[in-house]
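Handoff note, outgoing to incoming analyst
You'll be picking up this chain. Sequence as last confirmed:
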Amino acid sequence: MLVELPLTEQFVRGAVELETTTTGVLPHRLPAWARRQFPDPQLMTSEAQPSGVRIAFRGSATGVELRVVATRQSYPGVPPRPLGVYDLRIDGDLVGLTTADEGRVVFTGLPAREKLVEIWLPHHEQTELVSCRVEGSAEPVLDGRPVWVHHGSSLSQGSNAASPSTTWPAVAAALTGHQLLNLGFGGGALVDASTARVLRDLPADVLSVELGINVVNADAMRMRAFTPAVHGFLDTVREGHPTTPLVVVTPLHCALHEETPGPGAFDLQALAGGTVRFTATGTPEPGRLTLSTARAELARIVAQRQADDPNLHLVDGLELFGAADEAEHPLPDALHLDAASHLLVGERFAAHLR
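Most recent structure output, in case you need it:
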């Protein structure tokens, strides 16, 4: 007999807020007050894509059925993304993955023993949860693992990762025994004050922020604005977490923007051939940000602040993914990591997270 689980925070983990809709619940990764302050449709799309969100329970259930409503983002002239993937993990091991068939996600044949079951929702597809039913027993998980709150760009959200539990933050969290709350937003790591307040107010045992790439490829600010914005962002986070370990991650290597400013744009010639690639359209000039200048300034800011903040740390993005890594694992669209590189970066960041 199938038993319906309540779609509450007890069972839906990794979301900041669950919005009740006419048909179910919609996981959000920004709270309603923050969403009201953002006029950017891209950020509103990204925050409602449940990267890092999973349904978790413990019990002897042998089957799970989800009913969902999926909303996929598309651009005119751009090939559609593949269907969102749902990962099934049992006691931490990835044992199955599937897509939604007419709004129905089914996993059967689970071992009939006490176990931890996690179903990771698609990281690039808005997913409204209509119902979750299980065959057998299921209880909420009493999870005492430390909470890691991470904010970053589409690289952190998981663009091009093979599945939702194999994005680099999910890999690092699994390797280090952390509960992940992923606030990686495609195109949305723009040193926003509201995002800093969200980080300030969330419970966390460790925090990290991956900054730089979106500021550069959006051509969002010059160095004059970037430096005080980063200081203000870190000041705000520290209001709620004065001594919590806080890691600043500088940009990973991306040849496209290492020395060429944004704005970034679709490569129209590649699109005409049915391939998604990006290009950089800016002209280098004093004060205009590139990845190399943003990386150096973030390192300088952290070094300056560490005199008064011994729990502030820097991770050089080039240690996670450098020029040699890009040569070995070319970015498939010239901007985002491929699936293998997500695993690589996750393993390397785990060493810092420990």
